[in-house]
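User: Hey, quick favor. My workstation is busy. Could you predict this chain's structure for me?
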Amino acid sequence: MADLREIQHMIHPSFETVLAYDYEVLPSKIHDTDIKLLSKCGYALFECTSPAGQLMELERTADFDVQAFVVYQVRRTGDPPPDYISSMITTMDIPLFGYSKFRELRKYLGGIFPNIEDNRPRAMLQILRNSYLPEGYRQVVLAEIERAIRRH
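Assistant: No problem, here it is.
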């Protein structure tokens, strides 16, 4: 939980952050409440170092047109996703970022938020340069950057 709170504070204050843990919910209502919260988001950041039911929510991001990001802890920044990150995650078309220090994660997220709203090509460059990207998503990011360059 402490890691999630730390990460929550790394997101630019112009974005409203939501942690499902902050909502008092009956155990029988957790699924529906989490999905309802997710459906109201434009972006979702998942910390996947410890499996905690994120797969279902990650799958649903596409249903709600939510842009997802996955972060996880690694021994050395730049390492490919470790074995504890499910291939169900590493084969989704979403950016992944392994961090060994919170400072690295703060820099990565700071290059995306608020740029993803204010200067999307800059955010896409940050994602392209620093994320582990499945090949299909790498092509999506490159195409978006190329379109932005042609417009200018």
